Amino acid sequence: MQQSDSLELVAQPDESRASFVLLSFLIVVFATAFFVNEVDWDASTYDNYAASPDDAEDQVALGKSSRKISYFAIGILGALLFVLPSRQQISFFNLPVALLCLYFLFCLASFIWTDAAWLTTKRMVIAIFGVLAIVGTAKHLSTRDIIDASLGIGTILLAISLCVELSLGTFAPQSNEYRFAGVVHPNTQGGACGLMVIAAFFGMKASHRGKLIYLGFLLLAGLFMIMTKSRTSVAACLCGVSAAWYLVAPRDKQTLVGLGLPVAVCSGLAALLLFGAELTSSATAAAQFGRGAEADLLTLNGRIPLWTSLLEHVAERPMLGFGYQGFWTPDRIYEVSLEQEWTVPSAHSVFLDVLLSTGLVGATIFGLGTIVAFRRITQHCLQTADPTDGFVFAAFVYAMIGGIFESGFSQPNGFEPFITGVALIHVMSRRTRTELAGVVPTHETDPLSNWAAVAAGGLAQCESP
C-alpha cells in the first residue's frame, strides 16, 4: 500500500539504540536463562525426541531448582529495567496493552477456581517474572536492538545444541530419520531457528552496512531450521516474511500476487487431477518434509485426536476453565499421554491451552487483545514502512501460525515468546512524533488514543483564561 512521504515523516518514530554494553549484557543473561529453562541434555537420544510419560510427569511435579533461580533472576532484572529511565519514547497506556493486562489479571484470578492451586500459583509466578522481563526489556531496546538480540541469543543457544549433539554422537544429518534437536525437541529448535531467519532477513533489509553478516545468520539459521524438519516452523516463517512484504509492497505488486496466487493454486490442483498418483505421491513426500512414515498428515502427527479429546475436557468447564495452566497436572499428563500413546505435556495449540486454562471468558479477552494488537502493529508497519517494523509484523504472524500447532507461546519464559513479546510490547507502546506533539492524525482510530487526545484538549481549554 502506498504511503505519502509526509505521512512517513510524521509517523516515523525516534528510536535510540541501546548501548553495546547493555545489549551484550542482556544477550548473555537471557541466553543463559533460556538455556537453563529449556535444557534437556538427552533430548537428541530419546525415541521420537520426547521423554516418556513418567519422566514428563516427574518434571512437572518436581521441577528444577536451577529453573526457579533463572526465572527469579530475569524477573528481578526486568523489574529494574522497568523502573530505570529509558531513552525510548514509550507509553504503556494504550488499548492493546490494557487488554493484555486484563487477560493477565484474569489468569491471576483463576487461582480462585482452579483445582490445582499449587500448580497455577507456581506457573503464575513464573509468568509474572517472564512478563516483567519482557516489559522491562521492551522499554530499553529499539526494534533494531531486538533483532540483534534475537540473533545473539539464538546463536548462543544454537551453538550449545550443536556442541551437545556432537559430544553425544547424535549429530547425523546424513541419516534420513535424523532431526536436529540439541537440548530441546526438534519442533522447539525449529521454532527458534525460524524466528532467527525472520530477524536476519529484516535485519539485512534494515542495514546499510553489515548486510553480509545478517546474510550469514540467515543461511545458518535457515540450514538448521530445515534440519529440524519442523514443518510448522518452515511454513510459519515463510508466511510471516511473505505477509510483511505484501503489507508494504506497491499496489501493482499486491495486485499481481492477489491474482497470481489463486491461479497458481488452481493450476496445482488441476495438475494433481491430470497426472494422478505420481504427482500426488510427490506432493505427499514434500509435505512429509523428509520425515517418512513418522509424518502422519491425516492426523497432523496425532494432534487432531488429541484436540478432539481435549475439547471434551473444555466442555467440563466451558466458561472459566481449569485455571492458568491448571489442566496439565502430573496425573492428567500421564493419563492423556497413555490415551494418545505418545507423551503429551501440552495441548500443542496455544488457543486450545487458553480455552483449557481460562475458558470462553478468558479466550474472548485473549482474542480481543490479539486482534487489537494486530491492528496496531499493522498500522505502525504501514505508517513507517520500516524493515524493523516489518520484523515485528512478521514475528506476530509467525507466532499466530505457530500457536495453532504448538503451545510454546502460552508461557513467556522461552526464547520465542520472549523475543516476540518484547517486539510486540515495544511497538504497541512506542509513541510516534505526532503523539509526542499532542496531535492525533486523522487516520488514527485507536479509541484510547482518541479519548486521551480529546481529554487533553478539553483540559487545556478549561485552564486557558
Textual characterization of the structure:
The protein is 70% helix and 0% strand. By secondary structure, the chain is mostly helical. The chain has one domain. Helix 2 packs across helix 7, helix 5 runs antiparallel to helix 15 and helix 8 packs antiparallel against helix 16. The longest helix is centred in the last third of the chain and has 35 residues. It starts with a helix and ends with a helix. The N terminus and C terminus are likely disordered.
Feature tags:
about 475 residues, disordered N terminus, single chain, about 0% strand
C-alpha end-to-end distance:
45 Å
Largest β sheet strand count, sense and barrel closure:
none
The domain tally reads 1
What would you report as the Rg, rounded to the nearest angstrom?
A: 23 Å
Shape: globular
β-strand percent reads under 5%
What's the average pLDDT? 82
Q: What share of the residues lie within helices?
A: over 70%
How would you spell out the order of helices and strands?
A: HHHHHHHHHHHHHHHHHHH
Which secondary structure elements does this structure contain, and how are they paired or packed?
Layout (H helix, E strand, L loop, with lengths): L4 H7 L8 H19 L14 H10 L2 H19 L11 H15 L7 H24 L2 H26 L17 H21 L4 H18 L2 H18 L2 H25 L1 H12 L14 H12 L15 H11 L9 H35 L2 H19 L9 H15 L3 H4 L10 H17 L2
